[in-house]
Amino acid sequence: MKFAHLADIHIGGWQDQKLRKLNLNAFDKAINICINESTAFILIAGDFFNTALPSIDSLKDVARILRKVKEKNISLYLVPGSHDFSPSGKSMIDVLEKAGLLKNVMKIKDNKLLFTEDKTGTKITGILGLRTGLEKEYFKTLNFKDIEEEEGFKIFIFHTSIEEYKPKDLGDINSLSLDLFPKNFDYYAGGHVHYLLDVKHDRGHLAYPGPLFPNNFKELEELKKGCFNLIETKDDMNIIVKKIPIKLKEIDSYFFDANGRSPLQIENEILNAVKNFKDKIVMIRIEGILETGKPTDINFKNIFDNFKEAYVVLKNTNKLVSKSFDNIRIDESIELTESRIIEEHVKSIELKNPEVYNSIIKSLLLFLDSEKEEGEKSMDFERRIMDETLKSLGIENLFKNDNQ
Ligand SMILES: [Mn+2]
């Protein structure tokens, strides 16, 4: 039997239209490979979409691709990830599930996880991912006895960082010890941490395929391409995991050291260095302290005009500063930057449970940032924001009673 394990697809995730399209094409290509390989089913370990309520355009494209999967009689099983989640519980994944295009396998009854059985007899269950690692509570409080004792070929899907296998540069990320995972599964299908891992653990085969398409500047630089896992099981229950790279465009990345240089010097260095860029993704990272002028003095319009034949040109000047300003540290991921700033400031206020405020602040930040959806009425939008605020503060019941 063959099946595929995808994770962190983040449909709709790039601001740049061309990269957004590539991201979608990566998903389409992965699905076509699954169809050609005749996989029995496909797993998505969270972060299918970049937001709980993706745009109509993204949805249209995804629905078309999922329909193709359904017509080939391939089932799609997933757990929502931290990006698919909204505090009000409203998520487009539910709509797709109701339409019969996929199945969320996190089903709970009487504090126990239930299995979803595939036509191949494979038994699948899992736990969703929440923002700031709040899914920990499920791992700690659910009773796993029944699913651990169940016979047959079993898969556990999760969207969580594992303490024992945490990549070093993700220091602060919330992670969970493997000890808290249910035992006796044949394959543990992970998502959330955008890196590749494949280990034979005492508990079973454990894998993260990495994102299906790099999700930000740093990932494009480091990973260069997306990836998913194609798994084949043999009669003796042995598992063979094949990594399937999804490469749609060549990526050339360049680094420029701005220390002691002027904006014009940097500009010329870039124009001289970047070559053979046709139809490629060109990445320009500039770091350091400019000798004169400020970062905005670099004429990027001129640079972009010169490289028009590239598929797309991306620049990163997060660590580029003028002499007259203090160096501000900006991490690659917005989430990490937010976490650091919140933590620094929460410390300076006297609070009983700073951790609680940490997660409240983060979820408030998340949906107060959300915009009115296409076709959504102002009243519905206000209500959605209000519902999410109250839920997040844990006072939704108080409010309901007042109204009754
Ligand atoms: Mn992700």
Strand sequence of the main sheet, in spatial order? 4-3-2-1-15-16
* Total discrete domains: 3
CATH topology of the largest domain: Purple Acid Phosphatase, chain A, domain 2
Terminal CA distance: 55 Å
Radius of gyration: 23 Å
Main CATH class of the largest domain: Alpha Beta
The ligands bound in this entry are: manganese (II) ion
CATH superfamily of the largest domain: Metallo-dependent phosphatases
Q: Please provide the count of β strands.
A: 20
Low-confidence stretches: none
* Helical/strand content category: alpha/beta
Share in β-strands: 15-25%
Helical residue percent?
A: 25-40%
Which architecture of the largest domain would the CATH scheme give at its second level?
A: 4-Layer Sandwich
Describe the structure.
The chain is α/β, with parallel strands linked by helices and 404 residues long. It folds into three domains: 2-246, Purple Acid Phosphatase, chain A, domain 2 (4-Layer Sandwich); 251-322, no CATH class; 334-403, no CATH class. 33% of the residues lie in helices and 24% in strands. It has a six-stranded mixed β-sheet. Strands 7-8-9-12-14-13 form a six-stranded mixed β-sheet, with no helix packed on it. Helix 1 links the parallel strand 1 (2-6) and strand 2. Helix 10 runs antiparallel to helix 11. The protein is globular and about 70 Å long. The protein binds manganese (II) ion. Manganese (II) ion is lined by residues 8, 47, 81, 83, 192, 194.
